[in-house]
């Protein structure tokens, strides 16, 4: 069901008239959700980093990504779409999550995102740590049933517990499989690399149903072959995409909490995402941006562009054109 009003959607502030560095930042200078009757696509910030195991700071990512998104323009040539022209896209602001209690934050995110989805909006979240994918997948699965997952990350994030804790940024996808939120025929990690605790990390992960396209596979096989393999696995299932920005090499994303050498370039990541055009994307998150470790906004710029392409893919699904 589309909630696009009969009149044209309210688009972003025109950066050819109002300088793009003026005024408060919303994602891509889009209207706030409270300025439009309803949104077909909502970008939501989640300022939360209580689930991290190493460098904190992802709570500041929604603001940094919005600032970095000021330079985005309304036509996306790579996907030949104007994502804001015929579909109402809006910035829904930040979810007020409890910074002291992970369980409470997880419940709040599930509830708030579920309520937004109930209005008919598709959601792209920006910011926060990878703990958040669990409540986001709970909300997605409640609406769509078990979903296919494309998980871009240096890490597996299928560990069982950390310090005995079940809800952390290293464990969301183990919980998601246990809770039946994922279609275990269609689970892929992309960009995996780096040292593990032991070989069992990999065998456990495989037992949960995941396939792995390592960072080195992307280099050896190339983007087109990787996209073909992933699309084959996803088919026409409802698809959730989770992007941990540490999938990028630290040269392309220094501002993150658990950096690993040997990652994707931002060009490779964007091209793989664009290869998903036509898949049944239903929602996405962009997590693990930690602005305090960033330089020259490299990481938040990459995250803003990733979110823009994800919004573009959702807009295409909702009928947007050039
Ligand atoms: N960045 C994410 N999501 N997870 C990293 C967990 C790595 C570790 O603590 O061993
Ligand atoms: Zn990671
Ligand atoms: Zn992760």
UniProtKB/TrEMBL annotation:
**In this record, what's one Pfam family?**
Arginase
* Binding-site positions, Mn(2+): 130, 153, 155, 157, 244, 246
Instruction: Check the record and name the InterPro entries matching this protein.
Output: Agmatinase-rel, Ureohydrolase, Ureohydrolase_dom_sf, Ureohydrolase_Mn_BS
Keyword annotations for this protein, in alphabetical order, are: Hydrolase, Manganese, Metal-binding
- Cofactor notes: Binds 2 manganese ions per subunit.
Q: Which CDD domains match?
A: Agmatinase_PAH
MF (Gene Ontology): agmatinase activity; metal ion binding
Q: Which SUPFAM superfamilies does this chain map to?
A: Arginase/deacetylase
NCBIfam families reported for this sequence: agmatinase, PRK02190.1
The UniProt similarity line reads: Belongs to the arginase family. Agmatinase subfamily.
Q: Could you identify this protein by its name?
A: Agmatinase
Q: What species was this sequence derived from?
A: Actinocorallia herbida
């Amino acid at each position: 069901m589309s909630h696009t009003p009969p009149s044209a959607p309210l688009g972003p502030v025109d950066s050819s008239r109002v300088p793009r560095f003026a005024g408060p930042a919303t994602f891509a200078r889009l209207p706030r959700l409270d300025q439009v009757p309803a949104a077909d696509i909502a970008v939501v910030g989640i300022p939360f980093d209580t689930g991290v195991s190493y460098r904190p700071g992802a709570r500041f990512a929604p603001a940094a990504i919005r600032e970095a998104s000021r330079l985005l323009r309304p036509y996306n040539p790579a996907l030949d779409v104007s994502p804001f022209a015929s579909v109402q896209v809006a910035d829904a602001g930040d979810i007020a999550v409890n910074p002291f209690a992970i369980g409470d934050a997880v419940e709040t995110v599930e509830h708030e995102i579920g309520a937004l989805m109930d209005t008919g909006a598709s959601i792209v979240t920006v910011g926060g740590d990878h703990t958040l994918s669990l409540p986001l997948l709970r909300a997605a699965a409640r609406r769509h049933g078990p979903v296919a997952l494309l998980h871009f990350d240096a890490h597996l994030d299928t560990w069982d517990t950390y310090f005995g804790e079940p809800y952390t940024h290293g464990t969301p996808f183990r919980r998601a499989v246990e809770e039946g939120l994922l279609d275990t025929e269609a689970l892929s990690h992309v960009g995996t690399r780096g040292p593990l605790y032991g070989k069992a990390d990999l065998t456990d992960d495989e037992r949960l149903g995941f396939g792995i396209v390592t960072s080195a596979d992307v280099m050896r096989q190339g983007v087109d072959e990787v996209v073909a393999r992933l699309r084959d696995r996803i088919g026409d299932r409802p698809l959730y995409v989770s992007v941990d920005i540490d999938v990028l090499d630290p040269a392309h994303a220094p501002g993150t909490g658990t950096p690993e050498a040997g990652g994707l370039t931002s060009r490779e990541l964007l091209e793989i995402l664009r290869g998903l055009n036509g898949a049944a994307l239903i929602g996405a998150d962009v997590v693990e941006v930690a602005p305090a470790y960033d330089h020259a906004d490299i990481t938040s710029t990459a995250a803003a562009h990733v979110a823009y392409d994800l919004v573009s893919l959702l807009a295409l699904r909702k009928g947007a054109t050039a």
